[in-house]
Amino acid sequence: MKNFFFLGIAIIFEIIATSALKKSEEFTKLIPSIITILGYCGAFYFLSFAIRTIPIGIAYAIWSGVGIVLITIIGALFFKQIPDLPAIIGLALIIIGVIVINLFSKTTGH
User: Which DSSP string do the residues of the chain spell out, in sequence order?
Assistant: First the structure.
């Protein structure tokens, strides 16, 4: 269960890094650029702990899937990047996939 905590921390770092990446304006803004680099380092650092017991494919699917959904919400709220209906349907399928993996897959290690 501790490794899912690490996976959650990795997701938070990835969301912070990706949000800062948008603000870095192609790494021309110093502070957002530093946050981006440190955020991705933190994301991979904590992901490395998570994959000690969570299979790498499952961990990556959860990490990227949850990250995609959350960064889309941040994009809509803070950058006015509103997804259209096909994007929303795709995001719903990603959410369903993460739920199916967590509830039904025996490979997640719960």
Answer: -HHHHHHHHHHHHHHHHHHHHHHTTTTTSHHHHHHHHHHHHHHHHHHHHHTTTS-HHHHHHHHHHHHHHHHHHHHHHHS-----HHHHHHHHHHHHHHHHHHHH-GGG--
